[in-house]
Amino acid sequence: MSAPVFLAEAAGLAVGTVVLEGPEGRHAVSVRRLRAGEEIVLTDGAGTGAYGTVAGVEGKDRLTVTVTDVRTEPEPRPRITVVQALPKGDRGELAVETMTETGVDVIVPWAAARCVTQWKGERGLKSLAKWRATAREAGKQARRLRFPEVADLATTKQVGALLSGAALGAVLHEEGSAPLATAALPGDVDGAGDGGIVLVVGPEGGVSTEELAAFAEAGAKPCRLGPTVLRTSTAGTAAAALLLARTGRWG
Description:
Blueprint: E1 5-7, E2 16-21, H1 22-31, E3 39-43, E4 48-58, E5 62-72, E6 80-85, H2 91-102, E7 106-110, H3 121-141, E8 149-150, H4 156-164, E9 168-172, E10 178-179, E11 197-201, H5 209-217, E12 221-224, H6 232-246
Helix pairs in contact: 2-3, 2-6, 4-5
């Protein structure tokens, strides 16, 4: 099994002795029960990882790590952004979790016209914080060094602007005439100058006619995944997996 990953301050990621304490230290000591000699990876969540072994454990929330190697991963290309309409209940966190594990780079919560769930005031801030915490924990679980960005809640107009700058923009839709499996990909897979891939996942009630028109004006076409209809909480993960394989990021 690969070494567990824990979040640490970027300034502390260097060869030598590093101290992990606080909530992450508590999780490592009291939950994962790491002991001296075990391998561990510390990351800033922005692409840098410090690899080493546990040198010692102090109390219930502090351990020292002997770091022998520090690596920084380049930003993956093409970047994959999923615009996720707000699902009902805890399905939003499920979507964030699985998209993070799959390899999505940016997740944008979207207040679509037909969303049953609405993020307003204090409730909206708490929901956004949950999505970000879910992405952070799923990133560690997936052994990622670069955690996905969870953006602020976007309006339809803001999603349109995001799509207009994409190298490939697509709206997942069961009645889409073109399959996502054959959509033209950004020509520059290495990423120099490409606008990345932006996928839009609608709510349980579907994407409205007005939203489809706005997204089409921004250059995004409706695309279908396959013969079955996926739930809003799983469609983004399935589509991202398809594109990760097609672009070679899973190669």
